[in-house]
Design brief:
2 copies of one chain form a homodimer.
Chain A lengths: L7 H11 L16 H19 L3 H7 L2 E2 L5 E2 L4 H10 L18 H14 L1 H20 L2 H13 L2 E6 L15 E4 L5 E11 L8 E10 L10 E6 L1 E3 L5 E4 L2 E6 L10 E14 L5 H37 L23 H33 L3 H36 L11 H11 L6 H12 L2 H20 L6 H24 L5 H35 L4 H17 L2 H10 L3 H4 L7
Parallel strand pairs in A: 3-6, 4-6
Antiparallel strand pairs in A: 1-2, 4-5, 5-11, 6-7, 7-11, 8-9, 10-11
Chain lengths: ~600, ~600
């Protein structure tokens, strides 16, 4: 059975040493997040993940969810108990407002915890993960009454949440959606339609499920600006908070999928179900974006999570599997063969995963801290800068971390050789589970277009300029001998990103297909630079710690960072060449030539 | 259900126009392969693949193989009937010698046919695929009696074959193997041991199975030079050719795998089974290499095959799925949305798959023709040059075509969005099936080391020099305006490959880890150059055909080739940078740091 050890030490190093979380103590909740508390919280999260959630990950995949004839869904054995421990531990609301029963800690803490949970059991973690997205939407757009009715139960983990966007004929293009909402005399709406691919849409973990449903009010304008968001509880909630009658929403079927078998992906039928408007009429997409942005960051972290757990298993296997001899002569002459970790090509894979994971974790935490600033800072300028950062980095994190997270799961499987293909070893499950993260919450091509088409030009390119200024500033201030081996290649990579940006400015206005043709490469080029910048900051912090005393873990950081800048940063040149080749050959063939 | 249309036209264009197969008419069997016959053979192969094999591909995956308590194995519904049609059509032996019942056509024809069959149904095609490898080994190393006893039945498709190498504790490092062979007074051997991961090891398709088993004769030297190859029939063959008693070999279990569920991957138990020496004592690995090289090319073609069928389905979906509008304005204003093929990012994926598939198919056919020259030419120098080519290109084709074939299956799945993750659409099966090709017949890291560590230095680098000379010669001879847009970037890429080679020569002798650290990148760099060269030859042939008259298919070739050189060739720069970074950061950490 696969192993997993939560990267608590690494997260603590990033929070305390690299990003110095104490600098944010002016924000609500941060003063509570002392080094001791961080260690205690992450230690508890690690325990739950390693001892409760991970042990039912493989069996959950084998067993899957079962839908019964009455529309109810049973989750795999052990999921309910594990979820209960999660809820009782208060994990759903560690960052939620205290007035609704949360602990008010930084959202960054939730982000770190979610990586750990998702690595241990991705399918199970999706149930609370979607709930946290729904909580965020209700917090932002709900009325005081809605908040009072739903948030305490959700934050307590008694109820879960879902997001209902996709319909059979529309996923990316939500303007096409058909689910109808008809206003009733009491102000509520009757919701009718079919939603598909609804993760956690039905299950047996909680007594109620709060569906957030995008629908079209009778007479609304066509397209995305005619969609409205509704709260549709599975079981109606009485004014006194007790549960009432079953609402007319049901699970019509569950999908037979490639992976995440432990999470029920439902077709949800709304047959005149009672729904309550949340946010403004015809502005549903705005309300939904709160959930979606939250979810996109979480999905990026899922990519990292699968990469991390896959890496850990590959490393353990590589240390133990005996096969062949080191090219430099036997390392263990007394054994029949050397462990395969002596082979450079095995090291190549392990180091690539490790360098990505540690850098990507930094990127996630750095961005999560900006999320806290955006939501909690009293300083308007700081909030705006943080919002810019979030807007710019969210598609990068979603797209790059899930593409690479999947690629790394495949790489980890490769380290196992033939055993990687056998289900019992668990490596192929990481591949199958990680695969969905590239697709849901906006396929990665959509993320790339969001970055290039919306986030770059927004506000005259303000967000991008701020990012460039920060990275350039760091390069300039850290040109000294110690960090130079890191910042010098970062400067080259940043130059590629700037050239690519310039090319887009000059070539995409007149010919928009040039933007579309460049988008995915631009996103990955951006991701390399962003993670490269993270490695520079990690290296600086590691050097400072090393100067204060020997620490093998910090030396390993420097080696891993060198691997990143030597072997992974140079890809920026290829991305730039592709971007500059434009849309010509890509778009030239007529559709019927395919 | 997924679709598949065999790329018969493309294969004919490559055989006749690009590689001018008629130039080989001096070789046995080639004069028979007239354009008419090629078209007829491939047309029949397409029919069998599309109408018989492909329709049971998805159901075969769902159903899988079942092992019964008596050790017998039932293949999925329809497999037996499809196999019978394959056998009755004579497909097993279209290139086999006429004296054993084959049709004597070029091996190149078998290669083209195998791509088609593997695209239609990879799991099913593996049964005859392994048989063809076993036939090749017996043809090369068998005694006349062995040939007479086994080949006619195998070529007729009445019996299948397997290769038994891997044991629980050894895959790549076969020197560790423990299966024992004890000589008997009648000259036969008793074979005892356990083999794992034996594809097609047991099934219900045929009345007998001919196992080729690598074992160690009592008292043999340790290591790989103490291994011997044996023929171990499942059912003993009487002197008159009829079947006798059951041999003491049985299937102990079948593996629960990620994919290729229609092929039984068996644990084979040899309990004093009767075996017959094939080839020389303690030279088993030499005999096995005949099968392995045959199999490696076939596995490379499997990668291409999965990429091709996945691409075809993605293209069909992209033409039909309506979602969003073209960046340049609605293309179908009368429809609710445009088909997603209008989006550059979808085109990017389709063109990348297409450019790879057509170039890789050329590479496979070019190399298969060299295989025919190696085995059939009366000219010793030509045979040697062809053998050099085969040695050099076999690991490249195996490694590059399966890595990219898998990546393309993932890309094709991505085009489907959420539907790609649902089993019913069939796209995730291509991903799961394609995944094994990167692992079996030598994991791709092993291919890379074979290329860099063995094939490059062999005979003073003769094979590589010949490859460089051919590509350089083509670039020099075709510097004119028409092909220039193709040969100019190829020249750059070739330069990178030559620089990488030079770097290896200068840095790998003193420090072998530098070779290991470079191997995978070198293999992919080589693959890019080789496929780039193919695209130059395709472009030249297409231009000649276009000059002789308009042909939309030939114009499409030029566009697709441009996409390859503009967007896929530039990756060579990144590979070179990685290679030149050496083994330093890769090997520096102690094993316990992982």
């Amino acid at each position: 059975m696969p192993i997993y050890k939560a990267p608590v030490e690494d997260a603590i190093f990033l929070l305390n040493d690299v990003f110095q979380i104490s600098r944010y103590n002016n924000l609500p909740g941060f003063a509570d997040a002392t080094p001791d508390l961080i260690e205690a919280v992450l230690g508890e999260a690690a325990k739950l993940a390693e001892e409760v959630m991970q042990p039912v990950n493989q069996s959950g995949d084998e067993e899957g969810c079962i839908r019964h004839d009455d529309g109810s869904v049973t989750t795999p054995k052990g999921f309910k108990e594990a979820y209960q421990q999660y809820a009782e531990g208060g994990w759903m609301g560690i960052s939620a407002p205290a007035e609704f029963g949360g602990q008010g800690l930084p959202e960054t803490m939730t982000t770190v915890v979610n990586e750990i949970m998702a690595a241990a059991n991705m399918a199970l973690t999706m149930y609370p993960g979607l709930t946290q997205g729904a909580i965020a939407a209700i917090l932002t757009h709900g009325t005081p009454e809605q908040k009072a009715a739903y948030l305490p139960k959700m934050i307590e983990g008694k109820w879960t949440g879902t997001m209902n966007l996709t319909e059979p004929h529309c996923g990316t293009d939500l303007g096409l959606l058909r689910t109808k909402a008809v206003k009733q005399s009491d102000g509520s709406y009757k919701i009718s339609g079919t939603k598909i691919f609804i993760s956690a849409g039905e299950h047996d973990l909680t007594e109620n499920i709060v569906h957030l449903v995008l629908a079209r009010i009778e007479g609304a304008p066509a397209g995305i600006r005619g969609t409205t968001l509704f709260i549709v509880p599975k079981v109606m909630v009485n004014p006194d908070g007790t549960l009432g009658a079953r609402n007319a929403v049901s699970c019509g079927s569950i999908e037979d999928k490639m992976g995440i078998h432990g999470n029920a992906t439902c077709v949800m039928n709304y047959d005149g179900a009672t729904g309550f408007l949340i946010g403004e009429e015809n502005r549903g997409i705005n309300a939904m974006f709160v959930m979606m942005n939250e979810a996109r960051l979480a999905v990026g972290a899922q990519g990292l999570a699968q990469s991390e757990v896959a890496y850990q298993n590959a490393a353990a296997y590589a240390r133990e599997r005996l096969q062949g001899r080191a090219l430099t002569g036997p390392k263990y002459p007394d054994k029949p063969a050397d462990p395969i970790i002596v082979h450079p090509d095995v090291r190549r894979m392990l180091m690539a995963m490790r360098a990505f994971n540690e850098g990507a974790r930094a990127l996630v935490i750095w961005t999560a801290l900006q999320g806290d600033v955006e939501h909690r800072s009293p300083d308007e300028k700081a909030r705006q800068a943080a919002a810019d950062h979030m807007g710019l980095l969210t598609p990068v994190i979603k797209g790059v971390l899930t593409d690479q997270g999947f690629a790394n799961a495949v790489m980890a499987q490769q380290v196992y050789g033939g055993h990687g293909y056998i289900r019992e070893y668990g490596m192929e499950q990481f591949v199958r589970d990680a695969r969905i993260a590239m697709i849901y919450e906006g396929a990665n091509g959509v993320q790339a277009m969001d970055l290039v088409g919306r986030k770059l030009p927004r506000d005259g390119g303000r967000a991008l300029q701020a990012f460039f200024a920060e990275v350039q500033g760091f390069i300039k201030e850290n040109g000294d001998d110690a960090v130079k081996p890191f910042v010098a290649p970062l400067g080259v990579a940043l130059g590629h990103l700037q050239q690519a940006t310039m090319w887009l400015m000059q070539n995409a206005m007149a010919k928009p297909d040039n933007a579309g043709a460049a988008a995915t490469d631009y996103m990955h080029l951006f991701g390399r630079v962003a993670i490269g910048y993270m490695w520079c900051r990690i290296a600086k912090a590691a050097q400072a710690k090393l100067a204060a005393g020997a620490d093998a873990r910090m030396s390993a950081k420097l080696v891993t960072g060198r691997f990143f800048v030597e072997r992974m940063l140079p890809e920026t040149a290829t991305h730039l060449a592709r971007i500059q080749s434009g849309a010509g050959s890509m778009m030239e063939l007529p559709a019927d030539a395919f």
